[in-house]
Design a protein that fits this description.
Transcription Regulator spoIIAA, 23 strands, 5-stranded mixed beta barrel, 35% helix, alpha/beta, 4 domains, Rossmann fold, 6-stranded parallel beta sheet, binds iron/sulfur cluster, single chain
Length: 452
């Protein structure tokens, strides 16, 4: 028999009634998804839902999914399979799929035997409380996948943040239509948040002790709100008391504004780190990807950035094995990576995504064996470059913001302004504290030093 308790309004409710008000959100994929999960939690909290500690104690399990790579899809498919068992044990449990995969694979998810009760795309989270109640009351499946040209969740400030950095989405969607990318299909058109609203959110965060924010968007240099561009937004955020570091990700190389370069160069709170996705080093492949820039333009932009911003840390994303990529074209990617000498890189094997232009018009014709061979060579080259770049820091002293403990006992871990990981012997500093650290040793991924 259901146990009866009273809710916040003094009404008598049973376990069965309260259980569907207890939600667990599990997140996959990028930082934008992490941020969106906080938005979902906040929307549900405001609508009398509570947050469960685990899937076992939740009446509603929401998977906030990613569609960027096939691996991410497979992981979520197998997680849905596992959760079907939990649904059998805990009758009445509602299983929902949110995010990019919901948008991308709606037909598959709506098939009879998936066990998924609810599907909501990235612009439908405000409807979740009603959708969950309907599934609970009717047992019918609910889905809402309409993409909006306006939704920015500007009025939902996530309140439950952890760590030393707070992510803030300042824009959503993307209009670039790179042929390999599913984001324009799953997240819709570009739209920017009102800057005053972003500033309010940052002020709230500083009130909770945050000193660092990372401004997020699929393409931040397209940020625009009534004459307010991204450079102005960073300047406005830097004027907020309590903010010490501002990071952002990711800009598109095609339209990197001079005003943004100037802000990064001159504003002491704007971190000297730019993540500039290259994707490929061959002009033919860049064109097939619809990246709308050439390797010559990219190299010149990277050189200009380094000349304007002393000490700049430059990182990138690269895809190998894009359809029709030849060995010579891959060699061009190796050559650009060698020429620019990024501090670090995220390197991926091409994986075909449904609904993208590439999937419709270009067969995935590079074998996995060749993709693997290419990525191994690229990673090997990049490790050596990262090591050389880090060696340039031997003897430098950096102001490091402590994030927590390192892997070794009595060791602290933090990041310098350029976002490089720095480890050093424990000084008793706490997360969020700043410590000057002199670098004495380096690896390709880490700077090792002592507090000075
Ligand atoms: S810029 Fe290209 S890769 Fe980035 S989100 Fe937009 S379409 Fe995808």
């Amino acid at each position: 028999m259901d146990k009866a308790t009273t809710n916040g309004n003094g009404q008598l409710v049973t376990d069965k009634q309260t259980r569907h008000k207890s939600v667990f959100v599990e997140t996959y994929g990028c930082q934008m998804n992490e941020y969106d999960s906080e938005i979902v939690r906040e929307i549900l909290r405001r609508n009398d839902f509570t947050l469960a500690e685990s899937v076992d104690s939740a009446g509603v399990i929401l998977l906030n999914t990613c569609a960027i790579r096939e691996g991410a899809h497979d992981k979520i498919r197998s997680r849905i399979g596992e959760l079907r068992h939990i649904k059998k044990q805990n009758k009445g449990t509602i299983l929902g799929v949110l995010g990019c995969m919901a948008q991308n694979l709606k037909k598959e998810l709506l098939e009879d035997n998936t066990g998924v009760d609810l599907i909501a795309g990235p612009d439908s989270y405000k409807a979740l409380p009603v959708m969950i109640d309907r599934v609970h009351n009717t047992g019918e499946r609910e889905f809402k996948l309409t993409l909006s040209e306006y939704e920015t969740y500007a009025d939902v400030f996530p309140t439950n943040r952890h760590g030393t950095n707070a992510w803030i989405a300042v824009m959503r969607g993307c209009d670039n239509y790179c042929t390999f990318c599913v984001v324009p299909m799953t997240r819709g058109r570009e739209r920017s948040r009102d800057p005053y609203n972003v500033i309010e959110e940052v002020k709230q965060l500083t009130g909770h002790g945050f000193k660092q924010v990372t401004l997020l968007g699929q393409n931040v240099n397209s940020y625009k709100f009534k004459g307010f561009d991204f450079a102005k937004l960073i300047t406005a955020v830097s004027r907020i008391d309590g903010i010490e570091r501002i990071r952002f990700t990711s800009p598109h190389p095609k339209d990197f504004p001079e005003s943004l370069l100037e802000v990064v160069a001159t504003n002491p709170k704007a971190c000297k780190h730019i993540h500039l996705p290259l994707q490929a080093g061959s002009n033919r492949v860049l064109d097939a990807m619809n990246r709308t820039y050439t390797r010559e333009y990219f190299v010149e932009l990277a050189e200009r950035m380094r000349a304007l911003i002393p000490g700049l840390v430059l990182t990138t994303d690269v895809i190998v094995g894009f359809p029709t990529e030849t060995e010579d074209e891959f060699q061009e990617t190796l050559a650009v990576m060698h020429e620019v000498k990024f501090d670090s890189a995220f390197m991926f094997k091409y994986s075909e995504r449904k609904e993208t232009m590439a999937s419709r018009t270009m067969p995935d014709d590079i074998s996995d064996e060749i993709k693997t061979d290419r990525i191994v060579r690229l990673v090997d080259q990049q490790r050596q470059i990262s090591y050389q770049r880090n060696q340039l820091h031997l003897g430098d002293t950096f102001n490091v913001m402590v994030e927590g403990y390192g892997k070794k006992p009595k060791q602290l871990l933090g990041r310098n302004d350029g976002n490089k990981i720095v480890v050093f012997p424990d000084t008793g500093a706490k997360p969020g504290d700043f410590v000057n650290v002199k670098i004495e040793e380096v690896t390709p991924n880490t700077l090792i030093g002592v507090a000075v």
